[in-house]
User: What shape does this take?
Amino acid sequence: MGRNFNISDELRDLNAVFLLNADRKNLFFIPENYFTELPGLLRANIFLNSLPATNPFTVPEGFFENFPTLMLSKLKSDDALVNVTGNKKELLYSIPENYFDNFANEVLKKIKQSEPVSVQQELEEISPFLSTIPRTNVYSVPENYFLNLNSNVTAEQPPAKVISIGSKTRKWANYAAAACVAALLFGGSFLHFYKKGNTEVTPAVASALSSEDLQKKISVLSDEEITNYLKTNSNLAVYSNTGTDEYQQQNLDIQNMLQNVPDEDIQQYLDQDPQSSSTEEGI
Amino acid sequence: MQIEDKELLEQFRLPETKEKAFTAIIKRYQEKLYWHIRRMVVDHDDTNDVMQNVFIKVWNGLENFREDSQLYTWLYRIATNESLTFLEQQKKKSAISLSDVETGLANKVIADKNFDANRLEWKLQLAIQQLPEKQKLVFNLRYYDEMPYEEMSKVLDTSEGALKASYHHAVKKIEEFIKNN
Assistant: This one.
């Protein structure tokens, strides 16, 4: 059949005047490039429809059953981080109660701890009781003491007597002093004893006695007899703890002199001179 | 060092101003040193003896003072050592034990003409005399002279920590003594 007919002629034969005069333009919308892309879309659709209807992905067991509970609990924990102003966007850490109210005091306290405390504050901390006791000076001072003090401490001191400690002369002086004292003590005690006894003591008799005899005689003397002898002989206050200050001073002087003399030297000297052997205290 | 002390030291080192400077030093420090000594030895006459010894040593040693510490620190050190030496001599003279020395000093407190056992201040003095010498020194320097521990450390040649501990113990002992007596 050939396409020799004319639609317009056909519409005229049908007396379809309206249709014969109508605009035949396409009024429907078609996406851009629709027909260009249509073949590819149709081929993809055909391919997808041909695939088996199976799901290759897996889901944890009970996931969907628990999912609503999970969501609710998550929403609740988010609520706990909301600040007191209700601003749910801000998340804050918890802080101790009244932290900011006390913070300034805490800082000041630390600063004060690092600063040196006064003596009074220190005392109050250690002993509040003691800090309440008034610091009254209870001792008295003689009138005008401080006014006269610096005149008593003479500015120009006299040259001090130089005593050479350890020199040979000094050592022998010490030995001599010890020997003299010992000899006088024993001799005097001995004479005193013999005055009381039957034998008349003369220097000749005394010198004739051996050192051993002398020691025997003196050893029987009582302490009281020796002390009485010393009291009556003021220049021999070697051993006295009841004497006057002068005696004590002499005692101290001798002790000071002998202080630096080694015991071996004294013993050697005493061994060399039997008459001076002595066991008296203080020598 | 205080400027005035420095000037006094310079004057002391010059022969023409030596005595004048020495007098000025005595006047400046005599009362402080006196009371420091007196609190150790109690008796006025003993204190006077120690004071004389102190200033004789000052006269002899001031020329060589190295100025690496305050003058008053150096003076306090001398006064402390002389007081301790005096107490040591007292011990040797009387041949008594250490505890007897403390008892002896307490007796000197009681013997004071103004002593009043009912007054807390006198009880405090008795309590102080019960302390060992070193603790007594630390207490006196801190309580009466309000000496900083740093200075006290130079006077007593002891660490600050040890001094603080010593002071703490001394205060507690004194408190206990007063409360028990």
Summary: The mean pLDDT of chain B is 89. The CA atoms of residues 4 and 10 of chain B lie 10 Å apart.
